[in-house]
């Protein structure tokens, strides 16, 4: 599926989107799966849309691309991007210019058409190693306040018209409100975010063995395996190894305080501060990765 990567690279050069978190109106939350009919809200762009029937969506952690995938036998993928300042005429010119992804592959829009407030176009790839069994299509729409949002789809030829119809209707039914630059974490629900998650750190920034794993379950229990002092480095060396107990969290915007009460009563309860920065969780200056826990029931 090299055509997927090539076409995605083209759109990444043309547009970008903010990695956003939870808030009222379903502010996009990284890692959350959005089901058909759920509302998507991107405050920075003032963009509001609904997940189409037969589709589901996710903003992968540390990604700037919202992805919609089919849940039926009709195969296709839709990528959603945003840009704070643009206009449809400039976008049309950029699309027509295309881009060289390599010495042998070029991507280009075919006859971009501006109808009402929608810019639509088929996108094709020319060159070696291009999968001619797939087709691409893009739709862009801009807010009167300035931000623009583009959706790009790719699908096998036999599903092209169906997915094209879906992405077009997705954009037609979307709407804009005045954008907001409020912190993405203004109303961040830390207890919800951390429940049934595992926090993991590795021996080096490049990966390697897991140094610390802390499973935070929704029922308030936790289990931990700490091979170095990282998470509790401000505490005494007794806070390491295999531990368990109860946890609670309270947050204020980008920062949260997590309290741990240990099953081992010889360990006094402690509090640890977490900070989220550009979708990255930082504890005591160290990066932690967050995933779904396989230990919580």
Plain-language structure description:
With about 300 residues, the chain is mainly β. The protein contains 4 helices and 20 strands. The chain has helices at about 1-15, 90-95, 160-170, 190-195, and strands at about 35, 40, 45-50, 55-60, 65-70, 75-85, 100, 105-115, 120-125, 135-140, 150-155, 175, 195-205, 205-215, 220-225, 240-250, 255-260, 270-275, 280-285, 285-290. The chain has a 9-stranded antiparallel sheet. Strands 13-14-15-16-17-18-19-20 form an 8-stranded antiparallel β-barrel. Strand 2 (about 40) and strand 3 (about 45-50) form a beta hairpin. The relative contact order is 0.13.
Mean pLDDT: 79
The SS-based structural class is mainly beta
Question: Separation of termini?
Answer: 36 Å
Multimeric state: single chain
In percent, how helical is the residue content?
Answer: 10-25%
Shape: elongated
Give the strand tally: 20
Question: What kind of sheet is the major sheet?
Answer: 9 strands, antiparallel
If helices are DSSP runs of H or I spanning 4 or more residues, what is the number of helices? Answer: 4
What are the low-pLDDT stretches, counting only 5+ consecutive residues below 50? 1-24
* Beta-strand residue percentage: 35-45%
- Helix and strand element order: HEEEEEEHEEEEEHEHEEEEEEEE
Main sheet strand line-up: 1-4-5-6-11-10-9-8-7
Report Rg.
22 Å
């Amino acid at each position: 599926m090299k055509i997927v990567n090539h076409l995605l690279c083209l759109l990444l050069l043309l547009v970008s989107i903010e990695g956003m978190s939870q808030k009222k109106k379903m502010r996009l939350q990284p890692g959350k799966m959005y089901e058909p009919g759920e509302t998507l809200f991107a405050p920075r762009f003032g963009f509001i849309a609904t997940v189409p029937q037969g589709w589901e969506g996710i903003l992968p952690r540390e990604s700037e691309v919202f992805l919609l995938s089919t849940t039926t036998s009709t195969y296709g993928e839709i990528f959603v991007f945003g840009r704070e300042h643009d206009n449809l005429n400039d976008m049309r010119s950029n699309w027509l210019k295309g881009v060289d992804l390599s010495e042998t592959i070029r991507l280009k829009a075919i006859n971009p058409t501006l109808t009402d407030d929608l810019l639509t176009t088929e996108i094709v790839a020319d060159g070696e190693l291009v999968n001619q069994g797939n087709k691409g299509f893009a739709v862009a729409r801009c807010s009167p306040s300035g931000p623009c949002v583009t959706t790009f789809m790719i699908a096998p030829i036999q599903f092209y018209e169906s997915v094209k119809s879906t992405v077009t209707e997705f954009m037609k039914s979307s709407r804009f409100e005045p954008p907001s630059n409020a912190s993405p974490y203004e109303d961040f629900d830390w207890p919800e975010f951390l429940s049934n998650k595992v926090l993991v750190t590795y021996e080096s920034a490049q990966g390697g063995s897991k140094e610390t794993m802390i499973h935070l379950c929704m029922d308030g229990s936790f289990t931990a395996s700490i091979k170095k002092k990282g998470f509790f480095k401000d505490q005494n060396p007794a806070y390491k190894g295999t531990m368990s107990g109860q946890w609670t969290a309270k947050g204020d915007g980008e920062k949260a305080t997590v309290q741990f009460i240990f099953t081992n009563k010889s360990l006094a309860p402690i509090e640890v501060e977490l900070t989220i920065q550009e979708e990255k969780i930082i504890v005591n200056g160290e990066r932690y990765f967050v995933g779904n826990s396989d230990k919580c029931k």
